[in-house]
Specification:
It contains 14 helices and 18 strands. It has two domains: 247 residues, Metal-dependent hydrolases (TIM Barrel, Alpha-Beta Barrel); 95 residues, no CATH class. Helix 11 packs across helix 12 and helix 11 packs across helix 14. It has 407 residues and is of the alpha+beta class. The strands form five sheets. Strands 3-4-5-2-1-11-12-15 form an eight-stranded mixed β-sheet. Strands 6-7-8 form a three-stranded antiparallel β-sheet, with helices on one face. The protein has a three-stranded antiparallel β-sheet with strand order 17-16-18. Helices cover 28% and strands 16% of the residues.
Length: 407
Amino acid sequence: MQVNADLHIHSKYSMATSPKMDLPTLASKSLKKGIQLVATGDCLHPKWLCEIKTLKEENGVFKLKAPDSDLKTDANFILTTEIEDINQVHHLLIIPSISKAEELYEFIKPHSKDIDSNGRPNVRLDGKEIADAAISAGALIGPAHAFTPWTAMYAYHNSLKECYGDMAKNIYFIELGLSADTSYADRIAELKCLTYLSNSDAHSPYVNKLAREFNRFEMEDISFDELKMAIIREKGRKPVLNVGMPPEEGKYNESACIRCFRHYTIRESVMKSCSCGGTIKKGVKDRVNELASFDEPQYPDHRPPYIHIIPLSEIIAKALGIGPNTKGVQGVWNALIGQYGSEVAVLIDADIKNSGVDERVIGAIIAFKEGKVKVKPGGGGQYGSVELPGKTNKKKIEPQRSLGDFG
């Protein structure tokens, strides 16, 4: 079976997150998005773990029926957490059981002042020490949003070995983050053997945040062991698709000032400060160019395709000329989901020409599928902007294919 999975989100117990990041809301929203397996996030936080314990557990997966769903299927949650190490590098952990989460909590607690108050704890340990503990507990660990200029592995280290020491041999994945995709990462030779994860890192359950990036895996069933085998690529289990926003839409794609958002070339950015007095933050594209082993990406045979998807709510908003979180957008979004079952189906699989929604929306979705959507790159903490045909563009997105093409 093929499983869509978003393996990095946060709960209501993390800083700067929506209070609606609760289990019933996440269950409802993930099913409507077309995601069969969603991260719990923050599973080392005692209060959040207590809530997770109320769910039915089967083989390391926690099940909950969405309160507003007519679907017979349950939402499935997998235990995950994000940890910030002593060097400000963020790590994503995928954990096999409640008992192992509790074991990691007990190990980390003496090294963290905020593990009981912040869903993403700051820990006075380095990457090697955290990886050693995670792997000893049977968890998977890898760098979160690996290229982001503030809190990522490649922001502070030049290699996996530099970050994880002799535990680097036990790292099986990296998370690409919103400002990078496969074409960026596969210019770096040391990543050739790793699995790439594309996750949302959602801080709210809005339809343009949760599962804005996700993975599709070939698995026998939905369980921790099956997911682990899929990430490690064992016994025929494997990733078959990465799905995410165009990297240009990420808010750190190009080097730019964090105050006025003026963009700079890498040569200009060595000035360290913008003419407005703000700091210039090196973009992911420039950082990849520094690290790159190849001028062009060199894709290994195991690398699945990467499809660029822009959240449906953003396309509707652009078509109607209104905000993405307005009632008008939500009404059209609900109508389309009601007809086709999920956002993934609407954006990629379904023929929506006779959907009956506003013709401007139909035209915008078709333009997206035909590769006519344009993106102005983001930088300095400001997201890139999506534009429909006829407006100034920086880069055209390649035409999309059906998810079924990659089955």
